[in-house]
Design a protein that fits this description.
- Two copies of one chain form a homodimer.
- By secondary structure, chain A is of the alpha+beta class.
- Chain A has three helices and six strands.
- Chain A has helices at residues 8-13, 53-74, 120-135, and strands spanning 14-19, 23-28, 35-40, 78-83, 93-98, 142-143.
- A six-stranded antiparallel sheet of chain A has the order 4-5-3-2-1-6.
- At the A-B interface, α2 and β4 of A face α2 and β4 of B.
Chain lengths: 144, 144
């Protein structure tokens, strides 16, 4: 299997929080929404079904755990979970906490409003609190 | 657990193809893209993690099988899989085959172009071929 390298567009848009057993966890640098992206650390994978069965199940477990965690912590009105990848074909799964008063509600977030980068101190605080949160679960999360 | 009733907005936008073990399978009446929606037949569920564990795993199996099937059959360039639900909170999972020359490419489809309903004979043909396809798998699909 080819080596895994994070797609440069994902790297540019996010802060790496750390790794679960299979997925790298990214915080998207857009303060409009609490927004994590899971990227399975396997080379050349575009669709979930292309992974081996054990890897698929691990991705599904990590996605589910992150979903619960985000909604419990941020108390969102709805979670949006999506694997799209038209522009960045490397498999990556968005987990976006939505609120009825957020910038794009009730639309899906893509293409509605421009990203608003976190201020430096907000970003540090958000990253740290998410790393602590992810470390508190059964995800075997290793912060970076 | 409360009884399952398909949300009227989903019913209005689609044609029911039938049922897998847990999910109802809908064909969205938009000829811009081959687009199936899976709706777990459980009452009052908004997020995947709210289902019981066995149901979660069954939904994940059905989503994966439908993903493979759609991409093999339509030979798309990318599959978009998404559970959003901001307007229709009933848990439903979009499976949309994308092509580099489709109406919304490379954007996510929501809010880009209006739906183009299938003509009657196209719709019959598409529904029948999808029912046959779904019946040919290990999904235990029952057409309606």
């Amino acid at each position: 299997m080819p080596q895994f390298t994070l797609h440069p567009k994902l790297a540019a848009d996010s802060i790496e929080l750390g790794n679960c057993q299979i997925c790298k966890v990214l915080l998207i640098n857009d303060s409009n929404y609490p927004w994590l992206v899971l990227v399975p650390r396997r080379g050349d994978i575009r669709e979930l079904y292309q992974l081996e069965q054990a890897d698929i199940e691990q991705v599904q477990r990590e996605s589910l755990e992150v979903s619960k965690l985000l909604m419990q912590h941020f108390k969102g009105d709805k979670l949006n979970v999506a694997a799209l990848g038209n522009l960045v074909p490397q498999l990556h799964i968005h987990h976006i906490v939505r609120f009825e008063n957020d910038a794009a509600w009730p639309k899906p977030i893509w293409g509605v409003v421009n990203a608003v980068a976190y201020k430096k101190n907000e970003l540090d605080k958000m990253s740290e609190s998410l790393r602590t949160l992810l470390s508190s679960t059964a995800l075997q999360f290793k912060p970076c």
